[in-house]
């Protein structure tokens, strides 16, 4: 799908919080820079959106992923790989307020060099640009690299 295709955007922050992202989305929605329905999984965040629908936690997010035309996600590897496995169109942003502020940055940068299956948005201030890019971006199907751990283990054991 290309062009003005979005009907529903689903946002997940994981099991922590990502206040900066939630506030930015609520602001963009209030300013009518986002016209689509936005559903946000807030986690433990304190800020409650006024212009987007939201909830805190669910045992599975698949019921939200499925109808979403676009997902906006924190950079947690578990969530990123789940979205790649499902073949969802998504934008991933690193949450720098986590324990290790570089962890998600380094992970997403490495993944973005490997695939165009998602859009990497370095910082919340660039989210509106990433949303515009998503309208024309050619999201490719993610191909996992070939696993060679068995060869590494074999070589190690033979030494």
Task: Tell me about this structure.
- The chain is of the alpha/beta class and 159 residues long.
- The protein has a single domain, classed as 3-Layer(aba) Sandwich (Rossmann fold).
- The chain is 35% helix and 15% strand.
- It contains six helices and six strands, in the order βαββαβαβαβαα.
- It has helices at 19-30, 62-65, 77-86, 103-114, 127-134, 149-158, and strands at 8-12, 37-41, 53-55, 70-74, 90-93, 119-120.
- Strands 3-2-1-4-5-6 form a six-stranded parallel beta sheet, sandwiched between helices.
- The protein is globular and about 65 Å long.
Number of strands: 6
Number of structural units classed as domains: 1
Mean pLDDT score, rounded? 90
Distance between the termini: 52 Å
The shape is globular
Q: What name is given to the CATH topology?
A: Rossmann fold
Biggest sheet details? 6 strands, parallel
Low-confidence stretches are none
Strand content: 15-25%
Level of helix content? 25-40%
Query: Which secondary-structure class do the elements indicate?
Result: alpha/beta
Helices, by number, come to 6
CATH homology group: Glycogen Phosphorylase B
Text of the CATH class:
Alpha Beta
What is the helix/strand order? EHEEHEHEHEHH
What is the CATH architecture descriptor?
A: 3-Layer(aba) Sandwich
Indicate the topology:
Layout: E1 8-12, H1 19-30, E2 37-41, E3 53-55, H2 62-65, E4 70-74, H3 77-86, E5 90-93, H4 103-114, E6 119-120, H5 127-134, H6 149-158
Parallel strand pairs: 1-2, 1-4, 2-3, 4-5, 5-6
